[in-house]
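Sample pair:
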Amino acid sequence: MTQQLKEKCGVVGIWGPPDSAERTYLGLYALQHRGQESAGIVVSDGNHLDGHHGMGLVREVFTERVLKQMAGIAAIGHNRYSTTGSSHAGNCQPIIQTYISGQVAIAHNGNLINASLLREHFEQLGHIFHTTTDTEVIFHLLAAPNHVSKPDPLYHALQHLQGAYSLVMLWPDRIEAVRDPWGWRPLVLGRTAEGYPCVASETVALDALGATLEREVEPGEIVTLSANGVASRRFSEPVQPAHCIIEHVYFANPSSR
């Protein structure tokens, strides 16, 4: 059970509002119970990604001054409770990296059980890793020549992931929200009163964003949030749903539905 209790983080993403960083902060604050080790937010202005993160609670990492400097029309955020990788600032999320297709940031809740094998594979090919988290292998999968040349690199990258995970990924022009085929890690889709789409680990974060619940992101689904609205595609058929009871007993806020 000890290992299970270390597998929960909080993720948030919203597309559209000019105050996306401030709203993401509110979502992370509502999810503080899911991770108290570090917090981070990455914003997009439509062309470029910029981020801020640090060790500590959300209110300690993000001052009003920091948030005002984070201008963007979209943002993703992460509260960390470390699982794979040591506890230091270099492993804070969301992680931003640049590859041949441009910038991308990833906020990850869960564990990839084949991360060590994937990391070893890429290191043998000469790839360099900058963190000790399992999340970083996703960047290398996206940038792999046999994936990046495909029409949907994310779809092909996800075929190689094994484990329990929810991902919220930010490109300059879109957010991609992903849930593993078993649905082990929670992820919900909502919309604000102004019509801005958003995703989060729990509905309590949607409430903080001023959003209402539309539905859960389905196991094996990719949901895209962008200027074109919300779109969905599958990277896997769902496996028999297997919600983790510890999510609800130990980590979910009682206010979440």
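DSSP finds nine helices and 13 strands in the chain.
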